[in-house]
TrEMBL record, chain A:
Keyword ATP-binding on entry: yes
Domain AAA+ ATPase per the UniProt entry, residue ranges: 33-192
Cell location: Nucleus
Domain of life: Eukaryota
Family: Belongs to the activator 1 small subunits family.
UniProt KW Metal-binding keyword: no
Primary location: nucleus
PANTHER family the UniProt entry points to: REPLICATION FACTOR C / DNA POLYMERASE III GAMMA-TAU SUBUNIT, REPLICATION FACTOR C SUBUNIT 3
Species assigned in the record: Populus euphratica (Euphrates poplar)
CDD domains named among the record's database cross-references: AAA, HLD_clamp_RFC
Name the record gives this protein: Replication factor C subunit 3
A Pfam match: DNA_pol3_delta2
TrEMBL record, chain B:
Any GO molecular function: DNA clamp loader activity
Organism: Populus euphratica
Protein location: Nucleus
UniProt name for this protein: Replication factor C subunit 2
Underlying gene: LOC105110174
Domain AAA+ ATPase as annotated: residue spans: 41-175
Chief site of localization: nucleus
Assigned keywords, A-Z: ATP-binding, DNA replication, Nucleotide-binding, Nucleus
Annotated GO biological process: DNA repair; DNA-templated DNA replication
GO cellular component: DNA replication factor C complex; nucleus
Function: May be involved in DNA replication and thus regulate cell proliferation.
Gene3D superfamilies recorded: 1.10.8.60, 1.20.272.10, P-loop containing nucleotide triphosphate hydrolases (3.40.50.300)
């Protein structure tokens, strides 16, 4: 079992990083009742962990016995029926799903499936009517229509069903939904907190940590706890006992991106652009999301550029990322950004050095 | 089990006005509808206005008051965006419902029970244009036995032919004192203590949206117990603390790109929503005195561009960085045009 999963806090009491939020959540559910919740925050900050711990707090250990189901839903949309396949994770009291998986047909998921689930009310052993919890992942990727459909569903079935929504950026969730939920912001853990967690894991695993080693991992992790723990484990596999100057292996795709950067800094020509295209394809085939590639490219470039060029490059990065979102093929826009950068950089070189 | 149900209900639903006359601040609508209750006659209606001003509440209240709980189910069809409302539904479900005639008006106790049915189309602005077009003739043909209530946020999304068939009512944004009254009423019922500072914070963070104000209040009450301060409300509402916005602005002013980049990274890592950040940055920029109008205009333009991009789903970090870079160039009087862009 990976350490990331092994040391995931199971209850709200075990949470190390977001203790304050955990306390608040505990207070929230003491009356066996909670409002709709919207968790948002950067990836690797612990949203999911907190949600699972919260479910356990509400329903006890039964929330942990989950089964994975791959169901096909037949939806009657007037003249035709649509088959939708969706994977759900469910226990007796909660169901977890990512409606955005079905793409543009997510509206039907929201309208039909959620409604159907919301209508069935669980009854506990004492004959009390309880409520069901629906955990929806990646609500920021839901289409506009689907989000609209969610609004009324949330109100109508509020007595029998609680929604827990989880997303990276709450900007992409419509106001109407945000105003119906209690918003919980989960910030990325601070570096000291990451260090604390790493030291905790080190102690549990019985490892000797040289001073400053955990701090270096935390520094490299970009405030993502998941990443920190993963690279900690990689280090453990590579070399143990740790030496204090042991290199922390960077992600190989990141190295690849910085290679692209130095390529285009060295030579600006159509031929070089053609070479770099192959590398971009390589990254895309390996399922690195294009916006992440673009962001990493930008951050690598910003490290090397003059002050006056930075404004220009960051503007074009934003511009092409927006284009990429509107368009279909990521490669065009990534390449356009690189070409733009080359032209700007070349002009800059000519202006400065003649 | 009734008491348990009561407590688990959101306050927004619990304190939804049950009668038309209880709807706050929308005097014209209330006057017209009270008239309707007496004469039992009403036109097609179109309610529009910003969220949380009582549109749905009014529509539901009038329907309940006209028919009472018994007849409500058979006389009122409520459709909203969570139901499928494509053109097929308009052609079949709505038409079928509209076509059925009802018995002549017989007063049942206190309820007037007029001889027509009501179809409430909530969130009508998310209906497709085709579906709206299909409604036109239906509305006229069955106008004897059916009244339509349209509810929407943006009247511009309702096609003209539909809008012209209805009596239009704009729902006004709620002013601060009305909102405070309502909030105080709820606080009394729920046994909460809220001071005046918290009240004014609540109305400023909710921007005239009563539903949002009540949701925040309930959230804060759940999290922080029965006495609520303005700080608690800010943390529940997801507003960004002043210091963070100020730090971004100061970084822009310093003209140091790397410092600004660091601040942007901080905002993203803390998980603050960038749309909110833009809104608050806008307030800061408009409020400061020591920069020229042209500089302000330049900054606002970049804010607007970024906002549109965010709506399209662009990346938050890149957009904020672009705004910050634009702001920095405006504040430090760097040229707005790029020098190496051919």
């Amino acid at each position: 079992m990976l350490w990331v999963d092994k040391y995931r806090p199971k209850t709200l009491d075990q949470v190390i990083v977001h203790q304050e939020i955990a306390e608040n959540l505990k207070k929230l559910v003491t009356e066996q009742d909670c409002p709709h919740l919207l968790f948002y925050g950067p990836s690797g900050s612990g949203k999911k962990t907190l949600i699972m711990a919260l479910l356990r707090q509400i329903f006890g250990t039964s929330a942990e016995k989950v089964k994975v189901e791959n169901r096909t839903w037949k939806i009657d949309a007037g003249s035709r029926t649509i088959d939708l396949e969706l994977t759900t994770l469910s226990s007796t009291n909660h169901v977890e799903l990512s409606p955005s998986d079905v793409g543009f047909q997510d509206r039907y998921i929201v309208q039909e499936i959620i409604k159907e689930m919301a209508k069935n009310r669980p009854i506990d052993t004492k004959g009390k009517k309880g409520y069901k919890v629906l955990v929806l992942n990646e609500v920021d990727k839901l289409s506009r229509e689907a989000q609209h459909s969610l609004r009324r569903t949330m109100e109508k079935y509020s007595a029998s069903c609680r929604l827990i929504l989880c997303c990276n950026s709450s900007s992409k969730v419509t106001e109407a939904i945000r105003s119906r939920c209690l918003n919980v912001r989960i910030n990325a853990p601070k570096e000291e907190q990451i260090v604390k967690v790493l030291e905790f894991i080190g102690k549990k695993e019985g490892l000797q940590l040289p001073p400053g080693f955990a701090a270096r991992i935390a520094d490299k992790s970009n405030r993502s706890l998941r990443r920190a723990i993963l690279s900690f484990e990689t280090c453990r596999v590579q070399q143990y006992p740790f030496s204090s100057n042991q290199a922390i292996p960077p992600m190989d795709w990141e190295e690849y991106v910085s290679e692209i950067c130095s390529d285009i800094m060295r030579e600006q020509s159509p031929k070089r652009l053609f070479q770099v295209r192959g590398k971009l394809y390589e990254l895309l085939i390996n399922c690195i999301p294009p916006e992440i590639i673009l962001k990493k490219l930008l951050s690598e470039l910003l490290k090397k550029l003059d002050e006056e060029l930075k404004h220009e490059v960051c503007h074009w990065a934003a511009y092409y990322e927006h284009r990429m979102r509107m368009g279909q093929k990521a490669i065009f826009h990534l390449e356009a950004f690189l070409a733009k950068f080359m032209s700007i950089y070349k002009a800059f070189l000519i202006a400065t050095f003649g | 089990m009734a008491p348990l149900l009561q407590s688990s209900q959101p306050w927004v639903e619990k304190y939804r006005p049950k009668q038309v006359k209880d709807v706050a601040h929308q005097d014209e609508v209330v006057r017209v509808l009270t008239n309707t209750l007496e004469t039992a006659n009403c036109p097609h209606m179109l309610f529009y206005g910003p969220p949380g001003t009582g549109k749905t509440t009014t529509a539901l209240a009038i329907a309940h008051q006209l028919y009472g709980p018994e007849l409500y189910k058979s006389r009122v069809l409520e459709l909203n965006a969570s139901d499928d409302r494509g053109i097929n539904v308009v052609r079949t479900k709505i038409k079928d419902f509209a076509a059925v005639a009802v018995g002549s008006g017989q007063r049942q106790g206190v309820y007037p029970c007029p001889p027509y049915k009501i179809i409430i189309l909530d969130e009508a602005d998310s209906m497709t244009e085709d579906a709206q077009n299909a409604l036109r003739r239906t509305m006229e043909t069955y106008s004897k036995v059916t009244r339509f209530f349209f509810i929407c946020n943006y009247i511009s999304r309702i096609i003209e032919p539909l809008a012209s068939r209805c009596a239009k009512f704009r729902f006004k944004q709620l002013p601060e004192e009305i909102m405070s009254n309502r909030i105080l009423h709820i606080c009394n019922e729920e046994g909460l203590t809220v001071d005046t500072e918290a009240l004014s914070t609540l109305s400023s963070v909710s921007q005239g949206d009563l539903r949002r104000a009540i949701t925040y209040l309930q959230g804060a009450a759940r999290l922080f117990g029965s006495s609520i301060s303005s700080k608690d409300l800010i943390s529940v509402s997801g507003a960004i603390p002043r210091e963070v916005t100020e730090a971004i602005y100061a970084a822009c002013k310093s003209g140091d790109f790397d410092l600004a980049n660091k601040e942007v990274n901080y905002v993203i890592a803390e998980g603050y929503p960038v749309s909110q950040m833009l809104a608050q940055l806008f307030e800061v920029v408009v409020g400061v005195d020591d920069i020229s109008d042209e500089q302000k205009a330049r900054i606002c333009k970049s804010l607007a561009t970024a906002d549109k991009c965010l709506v399209d789903g662009a990346d938050e970090y890149l957009q904020l960085l672009d705004v910050v870079s634009n702001t920095m160039r405006a504040l430090c009087n760097m040229p707005q045009e790029f020098s190496y862009d051919i």
